Amino acid sequence: MNDRNRTFFSHAAFMSLEELVWGIFILAEVVLRRELQASALFITLFTIINPASALFSVYFSQILSLRPDRIYRHIKLVAILTRLPLILFFVWHDAVSLLLLFGLFNIGVAMLKPVQSIYMRENFREGEIGRLYGIALSIAKVFFIAASYAFGLWMDLNHNAYIVAFGGSGVVAFLSVMLLTLIPFRGWRTVEAAPAPKDVLGFTTTRETLRNNAPFRRYEAAFMTYGAGFMVILPAMPILLVDHLNLSYSVVSFGRGVMTALLIILCTPFLGKVLDRTNPIYLSKVSFFILIAYPAFLIAAWFLRGAVEPLFYLSFAAFGIAMAGVSLTWNVGPMYFAATPQEIPRLMSVHVTLTGVRGLLVPIVGYLLLQIGVLAPFFASVCCFFTAALMMRKDARILLTAEKNSV
Fold first, then answer.
1. Which of 28, 180, 194, 305 has the most crowded Cβ, counting Cβ within 10 A?
2. Which residues contact 348 (CB under 8 A, 6 or more apart)?
3. Burial class of residue 273, CB neighbours in 10 A (0-12, 13-18, 19+)
4. pLDDT at residue number 402
5. pLDDT tens-place string over residues 245-254
6. What is the mean pLDDT of each run of 10 residues along the chain (407 residues)?
């Protein structure tokens, strides 16, 4: 099997197991609220841990730049230190344990993002990255669908099922990361490694990169605004679904899991081709406009209590269609702005670092807005998505210049 095919099949298998775990964790906030009686402030902390852990990708990116020959050793350490600890949930299953163990899991997710970008850039041919990634993501979403809906039904039957599900996910998550060691990494060993920056958290790297790469800076500004719209509603979401809309686990898992993933499966291969034929700026713009419907339908569900479930499903249908495009541009977009393969880890780490920065700040804003009313964060989300779409539209011609200069 050649490097291209080996990379595709190993990466698709990795993504499939990862999505299986995410299918289980899709109900984590609802479990926190309904079973573990977590407060709004604790849920806010939980939502912060997830994106804020992205800051660790910067450190891992520096290690990649310094010693690419040790990449497999580092992957194994990530598997052992951030995935296996989930097994502890079998014996330690309160709100604090879920917060800490899920935080470790997300640190591992963030640290592996630059690795995936390098694999795709080195082993896939130019012009096919979007299509192949789209196919792999669609395959992986089948596992997400099965896990999320089965877990939702299980939780309706047994409200303690989360103990076994969360604990068992540690084994699956460990195996998924080990699959990355099967992907060939020969390309990186044939080029001189880029010098790694000294700042551990990457703030100096982020500032210098954004200052020197204007197209990438504008791209990240729009993504920052989109991310604010996504994260500002995270503290309010479980409170709206559990306390006000009174939705069951199976309904939530079907909407957030099955419906969203099905639409991602259906839309991603097509949108992957669109990405290959156009650019990440165009696809992001369209996706951000569609995302406006996501919080808007949830707002409507608050007022139209007789149509709560249909509006909930419509909300996550819009979310699924939009996220098919956003997932592609988020994971593939930064490499379009890289002048050389060695620059990819730095741009990807900056991309993820900014996710961590907004993850530290925006949920707190969402919590403060929640004190005004449960719908306040959702109105703010509508404004953010609309603004992000306009930013992509306004700066499209300038941003497209970066694509012409990318390798």
1. 180
2. 57, 61, 113, 114, 117, 334, 335
3. middle
4. 44
5. 999 999 999 9
6. 77 90 93 92 88 70 65 83 93 91 86 69 67 81 91 94 94 91 64 49 71 81 92 94 93 92 85 81 90 96 93 95 89 75 74 82 94 96 95 71 48
Q: What is the pLDDT of residue 406?
A: 46
Q: Rounded distance, CA 9 to CA 21, Å? A: 19
**Alpha carbon of residue 384 to chain centroid:** 18
What DSSP string describes 283-340? Answer: HHHHHHHHHTHHHHHHHHHHH-GGGHHHHHHHHHHHHHHHHHHHHHHHHHGGGGG-SS
| Both structure tokens of 241 | 């679904």
Residues in contact with 158: Cβ distance below 8 Å, sequence separation at least 6, in sequence order:
none
Interior CA angle at 274 toward 268 and 278, to 5°?
A: 145
Token representation of residue 143: 């596992």
Separation CA 337–CA 339 (nearest Å): 6
In the chain, the largest separation of any two C-alpha atoms, in whole Å, equals 63
Tokens of 37: 């009686």
> Which residue, 20, 21, 27, 254, is CA-closest to 161?
27
Whether this model's pTM surpasses 0.85? no
**DSSP letter string, 111-161:** HHHHHHHHHHHHHSPTT-HHHHHHHHHHHHHHHHHHHHHHHHHHHHH-TTH
Q: Cβ neighbours of residue 242 under 8 Å, at least 6 residues apart?
A: 30, 33, 34
CA distance 250 to 266: 22
Token pair in block for residue 141: 């979403």
Helix (H, G, I), strand (E, B) or coil at 196: coil
Task: Please report, for the chain, the start and end positions of each structural domain, with discontinuous segments joined by +.
Answer: 3-405
| Rounded distance between C-alpha atoms, residue 279 and residue 207, angstroms | 25
Pick among 1.20.1250.20, 1.10.3720.10, 3.40.50.970, 1.10.10.60: CATH of 3-405? 1.20.1250.20
